What does this fold into?
Amino acid sequence: MLAQRAPADKKSATTSFVDPPPPPDMADRPNYPAPHELEKGMTVEIEQSEDAEPIVGEVGAVLEEADPEGTVVKLKSGVRGRVRSVTHR
It folds into this structure.
């Protein structure tokens, strides 16, 4: 007598790929503009420190590469800080 194989479950025969959720610490981080998205003359909102009020101004220079805390720029006024958002392109 030959052994019979159990019928394959159709659900397990197909594999679906789903992107896993980001790690908990990454999921809570805001999505700040990357350096390549910033150009001289754009109007941005920056933060100098967590306690200070945000400042809006025109980008004079992008000073640092991508950082999870936000790209550091120098505004035309001379103020430096991390970009939180682009307010006008």
The mean pLDDT is 80.
